[in-house]
Design a protein that fits this description.
Elements: E1 4-6, E2 11-14, H1 21-31, E3 37-40, H2 59-71, E4 75-79, H3 86-91, E5 96-97, E6 100-104, E7 107-111, H4 117-126, E8 131-133, E9 141-145, E10 148-152, E11 166-170, E12 174-179, E13 184-189
Parallel strand pairs: 1-6, 2-3, 3-4, 4-5, 7-8, 8-10
Antiparallel strand pairs: 2-11, 6-7, 9-10, 11-12, 12-13
């Protein structure tokens, strides 16, 4: 199940970009140039008929940015969100899967969108996962249950709850959820 191994010192985690190229760009600035692996917890392109995309960009611009990141040596792992369609998988270079399971610096990482959180929780706890990543709720959170840290980086575009747009950074020290402007919202040590 955990076949892919990554040894990057720092990984960027985001979710629910919903077509916003501007949010993707802000997240990459937050992550810094040393981040070459990004985990995206789904709802990549579709923004909904009632939501304006900030910055005057279109979802096609976000597709171009994500694909360019991969062509320039970065890796993006994407799980399918409830708003992601089959056509999204056809235009994005990173394969969209229903889950991502990898080992990062000796830690088991499992990512699913979160629209079936009971399944993510059960699989994570059964497999002694170190960090289980989800999106979907648009609310950033870090919760530890037994050995597992459950991370939701929040939404980069349409946050709900008290926190603004956010993303997360994983390092050897722990996990930080940050605003896209660089303010720390939550921190959990390993």
């Amino acid at each position: 199940m955990f076949a892919e191994t990554i040894d990057d010192r720092k990984i960027g985690v985001l979710s629910d970009t919903h077509g916003s190229c501007l949010a993707w760009r802000k997240a990459l600035v937050l992550f810094g140039p040393e981040v070459r692996t990004v985990l995206h917890a789904g709802d990549v392109l579709y923004h909904g008929p009632r939501n304006a995309i900030p910055g005057g960009y279109t979802p096609a611009d976000l597709v171009e940015e994500i694909n360019r990141f991969g062509k320039e040596g970065g890796r993006v792992f994407i799980v399918q969100g409830n708003c992601d369609a089959a056509v999204d998988a056809m235009v994005l270079d990173p394969q969209i899967t229903n889950h991502v399971a990898l080992v990062w610096r000796g830690r088991k990482v499992l990512m699913m969108h979160g629209d079936n959180f009971p399944l993510l929780r059960a699989v994570a706890l059964k497999n002694d996962v170190d960090v289980a990543i989800s999106g979907h709720t648009h609310v950033g959170s870090l919760v530890r249950e037994k050995k597992t840290i459950f991370l939701n980086p929040g939404s980069t575009t349409i946050p709900k709850g008290r926190d603004p747009e956010s993303a997360a950074i994983m390092t050897d020290e722990g996990i930080r959820i940050m605003t896209l402007d660089g303010e720390e919202l939550h921190f959990e040590k390993w």
